[in-house]
Amino acid sequence: MLPTRLAGIAARRAFLMQRHIPSNANTTAMSATVRWIHRSQAALSHDDSKPDPVANAEGFDFNRIGLVGGGKMSEAIIEGFVTEKLIQPEKISVYDVSRKRLDYLMKTFGVQASSSLAAACKDSDLVIIAVKPQNLTQKLWTQLRANLDPKSVVLSIVAGIPMSNFVESTGNKRVVRTMPNTPATIQQGMTVWACTDHVSVSQRNSVAKFLSSLGEQHFVHDEQYLDMATAVSGSGPGYVLLILEALIDAAVHLGFARNVASKLVLQTVSGTTTLAMKSGLHPAILRNSVTSPGGTTASALYVLEQGRFRTVLADSFWSAYRRSLELGHMDSNVGPGRSRHDAHETDSHKK
Ligand SMILES: NC(=O)c1ccc[n+]([C@@H]2O[C@H](COP(=O)([O-])OP(=O)(O)OC[C@H]3O[C@@H](n4cnc5c(N)ncnc54)[C@H](OP(=O)(O)O)[C@@H]3O)[C@@H](O)[C@H]2O)c1
What residue stretches are annotated with the Pyrroline-5-carboxylate reductase dimerisation domain (predicted)? Predict the structure, then answer.
C-alpha cells in the first residue's frame, strides 16, 4: 500500500513545480518539469491495493539498504528512495535508539524497523550512517566494525567526519562521504559528495542516482571540499532562514502585517532565486539592472555595504568551515588572518 504520506509528497512536489514554471522556460527545462509533474500525478492516481513496482531501479546497484540513525535526514533519504522507486521500502532497514522514531518510520514509509545495528547492517550492500557527530562514539564504531560486511558501501552524512575515520575504524574501504541539506526533505536539496577509490564506477552511479532523489548532487574528487560544502550548502539553509526572518521583521517594522510581510519576502526571494537560476546571468548583472542611479535600491545597498554585509557572510562561512574541520579533529586554523589563509592550496601542497 502506498502510504498516504507519499501521495502528499507527490502533490507537494507537483505544486512546487507548477509554481516555479517561468513563462519563458526553455524546452529542456520545461520537458523535465512536465515529466516530474507527470510522475507525481501518476503516483497520486495509482491503485493503492497493488504493490508498487520498483520503477527506477535499473542501474541501481543496491538491493538492501541499512540506515543507522532514523532522524530528520534519514526520513528525507527514505522519502527519496521510496518516492523515486529506487528500492522497495521493505528492503530498507532502519536502526535508531528511539523505538518511537522507528515505529513512525515503519508506519509512514513501510520500511523495516531493526531492533539492533547488527540487524540493520545484515545483508545490506549500502549502509547509511545518519547519526549526529557526537553520537559516533567508540561503542558505535566498534559495533560498526563488528557488523559491516567488508563488501558493502558505507555512506556517511555525518558532518565533519573524514572518510579515513570510517576506513580505519570500521575496516571497510568502500566509503562515501556526503553533505546533504534540509531542503532534501522536499527533494530540493543540494548534496556534495566524495568517495574512496574502492567504490566502483557502477556503485558511484547508483550513489549519484540515490542522491539525485534528494535534489541536486555534485561529486568532488577532493574530500576537503566536503568541509567547505558543509559551510556553504550543508549549513546554508540556517543562514537563509535567518535572512528571511530578518527581512520579514524589517517589513513588519515598516508597518506591514506579519502575514503580508512574509508573503512579500518569500515570493521576492523565491522569484529572484528562480530568475538568477533560469537566466544564468551573474547576480551582479541582474542587481545592476535593478539599481537606478540615485534610486531606492542604491540607497539600501549602500547601507548593506556600510554594515559589512559581504564580509559578515564570508566570515560566517569561514567559521562554519573551521567548525567542520574541528569536528573531524583536523587543523582548523584557516581563513583570513589565520596561518592557512588559502586552505585548498596548502592542502594540495601537503600531498
Ligand atoms: N539536519 C541538517 O541540516 C543536516 C544537514 C547535513 C548533514 N547533517 C548530518 O546528518 C546527520 C543526522 O542529522 P539529523 O538532523 O538527521 O539528526 P537527528 O534528527 O538528531 O537524527 C539522528 C538520530 O539518530 C539517533 N541516534 C543517536 N545515537 C544513535 C545510535 N548509537 N544508534 C542509532 N541511532 C542513534 C538519534 O536519537 P536521539 O535523538 O534519541 O539521540 C536520532 O533519532 C548528522 O550527522 C548531521 O551532521 C544534518
Answer: 223-327
Angle at which helices 99-109 and 4-19 cross, to 10°: 70
Q: Could you tell me how many residues make up the chain?
A: 351
Angle 28-33-39 from CA coordinates, rounded to 5°: 130
Average pLDDT value for the chain: 86
Amino acid in the structure at residue 236: G
pLDDT given at position 58: 81
What's the gap in Å between 22 CA and the centre of ligand 1? 37
Q: Find the helix or strand (DSSP H, E) in which 92 lies.
A: strand 92-95
Q: Is residue 273 scored above 50 in pLDDT?
A: yes
For the Cβ of 132 lying below 6 angstroms from any atom of ligand 1, the answer is: yes
| Degrees to nearest 5, angle at CA 280 with 276 and 283 | 45
β 175-179/189-195 pair status: antiparallel
Tens-digit pLDDT profile for residues 78-128: 999 999 999 999 999 999 999 999 999 999 999 999 999 999 999 999 999
pLDDT of residue 340: 76
**166 near 133, Cβ under 8 Å?**
no
238 lines ligand 1 (CB under 6 A): no
State the alpha helices, DSSP H only, in 224-334: 224-229, 236-254, 258-279, 283-289, 296-306, 309-327
Ligand 1 in contact with 157 (CB < 6 A)? yes
**Three cell numbers at 219?**
561529486
| 58: amino acid identity, one letter | E
* Residue 198 CB contacts under 8 Å (≥ 6 apart), including other chains: 173, 174, 175
